[in-house]
């Protein structure tokens, strides 16, 4: 299975890859998201270590059951050959109605078919007031005309 764009990455293809990942995660479909990763993909997400698509699906189901009204923006930080580093921020609320903005960085490594074989994520959560939210598009894909992280001052 091939997942273009493929390495080696350019500025354009790294940005495409990041946007495809953002779109998939904003769709909040764990099975669909898992198909962007190798069957034996290895993750570190905060302090959790995940291996393989089945664990990715289980992790994402738990994540999106807890992080309600999830909206994410990713931005390429740098790239080289088969690796991309992104920074991101997402907003979500818990089941008590408290809002958060989570900031983080991810390091991605891809195989020759464009599947991610390694994902290393560092993330911090910041409580925000609902009035401080910056992401107001309907759930799902971020509209093309919605500002990115840099434009939002994040």
From TrEMBL:
SUPFAM superfamilies (alphabetical): NTF2-like
Q: Which InterPro entries match?
A: DUF1348 (IPR009783), NTF2-like_dom_sf (IPR032710)
Identify the Pfam families for this entry: DUF1348
The record's section on PANTHER family has: SLL0781 PROTEIN (PTHR31757:SF0)
This protein's name:
Nuclear transport factor 2 family protein
What's the source species' lineage? Answer: Bacteria, Pseudomonadati, Pseudomonadota, Alphaproteobacteria, Hyphomicrobiales
